[in-house]
Amino acid sequence: MGEAKRRRENAVPTVYHHTSTLRTNLIWMSGVIQVEGKSDGAFHPALGKIVTDAAARRAMKDFPAVAWFTKRIEVPRVLTGSALFATDKKTGELREFKVSDGEVNAISLNRVALGFAISETPVVPWREHYGYGTPEGRDLNESARAAGDDPEDWYVSETPVDVTKASEFWYSRNILHPKLVRHDSYLADIRRMVHLSKSQGAYIPPSWLTTSNAQALARRMGVPVANVR
User: Which of 18, 79, 87, 89 is deepest in the core (most CB within 10 A)?
Assistant: First the structure.
């Protein structure tokens, strides 16, 4: 048996939470993968606070808020395109900027995927969750398939998931054309950031974030940044 095949057969069944460095500061500060709609706006080092338009979120009437995971390591297609809006400081008017998907993706900064062993995580297959067959669930499934994703790969958790339980870390250094590469050496970094964030009440920048961006993020969040590098 070849080594590659042996590794595949011995692999621990894993699900991935796909996010970006735009939102990971919220994860490090809270220590959990939060269920949808429960996180505050994320802070961009140059643009300030970025929020999701409430109209773009699902109503969460047919089933409660959940945290989403997938068996696939590739960045889900439903996460690669969106629209960009900004509020005019003088008029208060909400205006849409005409930008390409690549430019919108760049605002999210680098893509990140956190892997969790299914056996040690409170997740269930989406297709077995009662929300799957609700009108809202069916709408999510249809929009995912239209984008090129397969909702049969999805898993959900109705409770926040402890990020320090992550067993894999994947990261892309190319913003516009993300290709995730495994960097499990960062797992210890994650646990350190979560521990220090809780104990010191400060923003603990990850080692892959530049010092200038880390300082800018801390200023935007209104918290001190701990220099622990």
Answer: 18
The domain in which residue 17 lies consists of 12-183
Contacts of 189 (CB under 8 A, 6+ apart): 206, 207
Q: Annotate 39-94 with DSSP letters as a single string.
A: SPPEEETTTEEE---GGGS----SS---EEEES--SPPGGGS---EEEE-TTT--E
d(CA 217, CA 44): 6
Q: Is the pLDDT of residue 6 over 50?
A: no
Q: Looking at residue 35, which CATH number applies to its domain?
A: 3.90.210
Q: Is residue 2 part of a domain?
A: no
pLDDT at 37: 75
What amino acid is encoded at 34 in this protein? Q
Q: Is 151 part of a structural domain of the chain?
A: yes
Distance, in Å, from the CA atom of 164 to the CA atom of 190, rounded to the nearest integer, reads: 7
